[in-house]
Structure formats: C-alpha cells, structure tokens
Amino acid sequence: LQADILFINVESEEELTRIESLAKSINTIARISVRVNPNIDAKTHPYISTGLHENKFGVDIEQAKSMYIFAKNSPFLEPVGIHFHIGSQLTELEPIKQAAQKIAELAHSLLALKIDLKFFDVGGGIGIQYTNETLINPYDYAQAILGALYGLDLTIICEPGRFLVGNSGVLLTSVLYEKHNGTKRFVIVDAAMNDLIRPALYHATHTIKCLSQSKQGQNDSAKLCDIVGPICESSDFLAKNIALPPLSTGDVLMIRDAGAYGYSMASNYNTRPRPAEVAFMGENVRLIKHRENIESMLKDEEELLQEYKNDTAKSIHSKKGIENDTTR
Length: 328
Ligand SMILES: Cc1ncc(COP(=O)(O)O)c(C=O)c1O
Hints:
about 20% strand, TIM Barrel
C-alpha cells in the first residue's frame, strides 16, 4: 500500500478485509483485483496446477462477485482489476482460452453492477521446451485472450516467469563417480536435489549433455543411466534413464533449462552450500551470487559458527570435500 503499486491481487475474503483495515489505518484507498479460480483443469503437473477448486488458489465466481460488491461499497477499497492464473508449464491453449472466457464473462456481469474494471490480469504459466513438448504459440495465446475480451475495455497484464528465464539458465555439475548396482548404472554428480528440485518434485525432465571434449562424438558408446546426487534420498535424481557415454570423475555435465524454479527453489538440505551463480551477457560475465560455504551457512547460528571456527570443529567437519567441489 505504501509503495502505491498498481493493484493488489486478493485471493480470499479474509485477505480483502485485512487489506481494507490496513488501508483504513494509513488513510488510503487500496486498489485491488480478485484472483478468481475458474475451476478449469490446466492439464499440467498437479503440483503446479492452480485453477481447480481443489487447489488452494483464488475464489470461485460467486464469492468473487460478493468480494467486488464489498470492495465497491468500502471507502478504503477500489476494485480495478480481475485476475486468474490456472497453472504453470502450460502446453495447451484450450484451458487458458476457457478460463479467459469465464473470467471475461464475470467482468461483463460486474459491469452490469456498475463495477467498471480497468485491468485483466492473465497471470503467467506459458510453458517452455525441456524435451519434446508441443508449445503454445505466443500469437495464438494473445489471440485467445483478445478474443475473450471482446466488448470490454480492459488493459491486459501478464506475469510470465518461466517463459522469460527458463531456457536461459543451465546448471553445471561435475561427475564424482560412476557406480553399477547389478545392471543399473548410476552417475553420481556433485549437484543434487537441493540445487535443482524439479526432477524430484515434479518428475520433470531436463536435457543433460556432457561438455568434456574427450567425450564428444562418443554417442555410439552411450548407455542408459540415472544421474543422481550425493543426498540421502532416493528422490535425489536429476535424470532417469538417459543415454550418456562412459563418464569419468571430473567430467562436466550441463543440465539445461534450469533458469526458472532452479536456484530460486534451491535449499541447504543436507548442509549443502548452494552453488555460485554466473550471468552472461554477450562477452560480459558477472558473478551474481557467491558460492556458499560452511561459514556463510552458519552465519545466523553463532554458537555453531564459533564451534566450527575452532580447530577441533574444523577437523570434524572436514572441509576438504567442499573445497574440492568447484563446479556446482
Ligand atoms: C500468480 C502467479 N503469476 C505468475 C506466476 C509465474 O508463473 P510461470 O513461471 O508459470 O509463468 C506464478 C507462479 O507461481 C503465479 O503464482
């Protein structure tokens, strides 16, 4: 409210009354938009599907209507927009089209109640290429939204996340060892589910390539393997059953399309320092995030940090492994 942003997307009656009381306390008018849950299956992974009533997001059409009427009658609220976001990594246009039409119908019925909105916020969700997905064409996407808005004078707001940055990031990792359990081949690398959780969380597939010069052109010798990290979970995998040539300690693998929901979902699970982040623009290379280390991870745990700093603790923790871990 103090930053005076364009509007606040509200997604429950409770949130609306809270915003109203905050606006009242600083004697301002809060511009709001209601996030409507159109109950449409976005046909994506259930963990990133947000537009069904079984998902926690938004309010249904009838509840949205009563929230708009409440906001219109409040001296501290101004309804200016309407919002939906039915999911992420969407590869089918039809659910988006249906949702846009349903939300536009609601905007029409609000107009009949003299609630004249200005903004139509279509959320994000446009899917990107990880392997062989068929993608939504941005032109068709725009036409679907515009088609729904026929007869309404609304400015479109969109919030694409993955679509902007997903394909522009890669995660580099070094091979630690190859290991065979019976006929099963594992390649153990120094990145793990704490660095890129998408495979473990969503069964997501990322294309993985070996960058080591000596392994280029060895496609004939490629055999199926799982790429796994050093974490104590069977869900600690970065890929399953992908074909790669025989790999040796130190070979560098590139995990593609890790620019969205990659570092932002990374954690320190298993006391693993997060990797450095480097940005490229043309010839320019910038370190945009330092590699974490044990000291930076413990900085808010003063007693532990002190312990770590004395020599005895240092030898117990054995920093050696972490110092050797230079790629991730
Ligand atoms: C309301 C809203 N808008 C936009 C986004 C961005 O989504 P995406 O990265 O799929 O474009 C999200 C993601 O969760 C969201 O919740």
